[in-house]
Design goal:
By secondary structure, this protein is of the alpha/beta class. The chain is 36% helix and 24% strand. Helix 1 runs parallel beside helix 2 and helix 6 runs parallel beside helix 7. The N and C termini lie close together (11 Å).
Length: 259
Amino acid sequence: MTGTPVVVTGTGTDVGKTVATAALAAHGLSEGLDVGICKPIQTGVGPDEPGDAHEAARLSGVRRVLEVRRLPDPLAPETAARVAGLPQSTLPELIDPIRAWLRAPGGSVPDSPATSGPARGRLDLVEGAGGVLVRLGAGLTVLDLARSLDAPVIVVARAGLGTLSDTELTVRAIEAAGLRCAGIVIGSWPADPDLAERCNLEDLPRLTGVPVLGRVPAVAGALSPAEFGRRAPGWFESGPVTALRRDDPSAQVTPAVGT
């Protein structure tokens, strides 16, 4: 079975996108899916340090990981390449390795009492950099990447004041690009939400027209991988498979052969 990509983007930086990607991955594993995580461009991490994709894989238990390119400075990818005196990334340089990864055979689901054995399907999460208009290269945005993959997009948003405008702008940009926004994930949900956060949870789907799929607790990134994997399914109102199947059969998670 080949992979069906889902692009995970944010309303900006530091919204909890990597931990939310890990949570989506862990939830997918709990549903019996073979899950992969891809980071097209990683910035601000040393050559021997784990990047975002590997951190998401560590938390979730995912085994299939792809990082296409790494740039040294903690900047937007286009800026990081320019500052380092390196060539700008092009769409083929990013897309071709991702497509090859998506075509490669998957694997079985990591052993657990609930999910051991052959996978029921496959889900590949592609984590972008920052928001949808962040430049991955000269004139190349996260939206261009998603369009080339023909992938639905999940938006990771903040919980607090200001998130309504940020999230609606992001969803509008996704839809204006001809892409489908599969839903919103709150990337860092507080243990004791204030009035604005509680109201935002109700207002986000009303204003954007897309569902809030789940809320990842603010402390989730500090959990052990075992505890993270155990708790992650409970953070979602509907899982990644349900979100993808809701409106567009062509965007379904790829079923395993024989299912």
